[in-house]
Amino acid sequence: MKMKFNQSNIKLAIAAGMALGTVALSVPAYASPSTANLSVSASIGTACTITTTNLAFGAYDAVVANAEDALTATGGVSSTCSVGSSGNIKMGQGLNPGDDSSDAIPLRRMVAGSDATSFLNYSVFSDIGMTAVWENATGVAYTGSGISQDLVVYGSVPAAQTGAVVGSYTDTLVVAINY
Asked: Where does 48-178 sit in CATH, by number?
């Protein structure tokens, strides 16, 4: 059997083979993708803010109105702390503490603006019944909620302090939130 090759058919076969080979080489190779994990993290520390509302007693009259009844007033402490945090809100002894004053048993006094030797005793409490003195040793416990928490400060100037001179009396208490 004799085969006869047509030269144009051979050329066509070679051209087709080359075209098919070129197409096969130019088709992108798809392989499985490589992967890696990216770790993401954050941490939340305890953070708090604290603000106060003044405790303003107003007029004290040791001879008539406050001869038998204490003068009372309220102020406030507002704190906002991170959720899950906890600690205590403490209140200092003031700038004019009595001689036997301590952080656990503060003897607070306001001083007269006109006479640095004249004092008006007062107390600060954390409860409406005015039995729990707000002090600087233990303080008042709090648990952070992430929103503002308002605490009332109850104040009392004892009756019949007739030795105090006429004038304005002031004191400053440092309020701290410990966590």
From this structure: 2.60.40.1090
